[in-house]
């Protein structure tokens, strides 16, 4: 599968990646190489990370308030290539 675009965000529990696979016509969300889901739109994956609704318990239960951080919902705040 050919990856067309990748967004990357290093979190305290691992590195999230949102990658577009042209052969699937979908965006894949993963952390530390563990696939968490696929999406029609890239921003849907970023929203799940931001709202801590990824299905990855270490992240979904992480206390961002205590860590004084915010997960970016805007893909402009993610690294891209």
Summarize the topology:
Elements: E1 3-11, E2 14-21, E3 26-31, E4 34-39, H1 42-50, H2 57-60, H3 64-67, E5 79-80
Antiparallel strand pairs: 1-2, 1-5, 2-3, 3-4
Please characterize this protein's 3D structure.
This protein is of the alpha+beta class. It has one domain. Helix content is 21%, strand content 38%. The protein contains three helices and five strands; from the N terminus they run E-E-E-E-H-H-H-E. It has a five-stranded antiparallel beta sheet, with helices on one face. The chain starts with a strand and ends with a strand. The mean pLDDT is 93.
Could you name the key traits of this structure?
81 residues; alpha+beta; 3 helices; globular
Widest β-sheet, arrangement of strands: 4-3-2-1-5
Helix percent reads 10-25%
Mean pLDDT: 93
Unreliable parts: none
Order of helical and strand elements: EEEEHHHE
H/I helix tally: 3
Count all strands and give the number: 5
The structure class reads alpha+beta
Query: What is the percentage of strand-forming residues?
Result: 35-45%
Q: Describe the sheet with the most strands.
A: 5 strands, antiparallel
Number of domains: 1
**Radius of gyration using CA atoms only:** 12 Å
Q: Report how far apart the termini are.
A: 17 Å
Shape: globular
């Amino acid at each position: 599968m050919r990856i067309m675009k990748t967004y990357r965000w290093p979190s305290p529990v691992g590195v999230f990646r949102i990658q577009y696979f042209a052969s699937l016509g979908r965006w894949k969300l993963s952390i530390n190489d563990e696939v968490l889901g696929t999406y029609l739109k890239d921003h849907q994956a970023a929203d799940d990370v931001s709202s801590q609704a990824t299905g990855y318990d270490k992240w979904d239960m992480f206390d961002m308030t205590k860590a004084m951080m915010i997960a970016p919902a805007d893909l402009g705040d993610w690294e891209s290539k």
